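FIELD: query
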Amino acid sequence: MNKELEAVIKLVQKHAKKQNREKLSQADIFEYLDQIKVEIPDDQMDEMLENLHEMNLISDEVDEGDDLEVGESDITDEMEDITDEEVEEIVNEEDTFKKRTLVEEEDFEHDNELDGTIDIGEFDDEYTQEFTYDDDYEYSDDSSYAEEEEEEIIEKKNRKNAKKDARKKSKDITDDDLEIETFEDEEIDLSKEEDNISAHDLRNKLTETNDIVKWYMRWIGKYGKLLNKEEEEALAHEMEKGGFKGKRARDKLIKRNLRLVINNAKKYKNRGLSFIDLISEGNSGIVKAVQKYNVSKGFKFSTYATWWIRQAITRAVADQARTIRVPVHMVETINKITKIERELHQENGTEPTDEEIAEKFGNGYTAEKVRYIRKINIDPISLDKQIGKENDSAFSDFVKDESVVSPTDFASQEELVDVLNEILTDTLDRDEYVLICKRYGVGVDENGEKYQITPLEELAKERGVSKERIRQIENKILRKLKNSTRKGRHLKDFFK
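FIELD: result
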């Protein structure tokens, strides 16, 4: 065990004593690590978890709330674009799947019950190789893979047959079959039938995201119950054998713990990532957990998987949640500086300076680099973010536009231009007026266009004299204007 990991475990041990508790839950440890701004690297996760178990510091049970049942509301409440019709369709499909798999869930030990319809093996290079088929295993079309394909085919056929029956009935109806008395007291609303047709069409045109959510919810509904420790060990041993049966055991171990992903993703809402993105990251964490799980270590897979699910989610939040992406290694540096700043504040009782933080951080860090990293840690705020009790304002409404001149300043400047132009016209002759206007870009020519600032070289070339001569004429004109007091009082009003 390296020194850094050993120091972290000692801190966790002290925290447990401070809380007067023999064991801490996984949530307690994660919250404490987040509080002290410590992130455990992936390659040290197994070692830390193993040491916590050996020291009897962590409970081998799923945290309270992580094993709660997951229903359609857990996901659809977070997705505004799922319609009520889609939710109803998902619920109906969940009920159908639960009824079909009721017998399968009674006994998990038989190979035919290790369903593997969702192929999660694409995430793992170890399982992307060609399967080794077991001669002792009887493969048949009765497996869940074939069942799922048959279900889809049957569903499509039923839809086609229903449409054909509807068309046939509409053609078979004649005028003689219609009884007028049945319509006397009822108002015929043809729009209802049109609405039903359009609603059916809309349900079949789910967006890609909603379609993924729909299937995900169906599988959680089918595999909603967590395994006990003996069942997890049996699947883990089956998985270690490899081959087709091992892959199916692996898939079932993942699917039966999917509710852990949903319940842990809830804890990281409103941190910059959408709920569906949190679920996606949690899925990658549980896949990594099943790759690394070693049943001989003695702890349950569900508790082991929770570590990797939260690790994947917290890493994604740190890496992707910001508007401007900050690399993970820089986030770790920011956390270390924050921790040092807190420690120095506790020791000295005052806010530490950047120089003190840099000195304690070491590694050649300077105060300037500390200030730069602090600046990175400032979260940007959208100018379009709604504020106010009724969200009727945005930040952009309160930001001053420096490029816009206020009406008062604009009117004052225009008046100053008029007064200055009047002074130049009354005080100077025409040749002096043109030269000083071209030199400073003031006044207008005979066509009413403003003069542009002209360098000494162009003025000298235009008049056929040297630059020095132009400079002498310029100084002479400025002295003439300065000594003219006839209009000077008007200029004083603009410079009070």
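FIELD: remark
Residues 441 and 453 are 4 Å apart (CA to CA).
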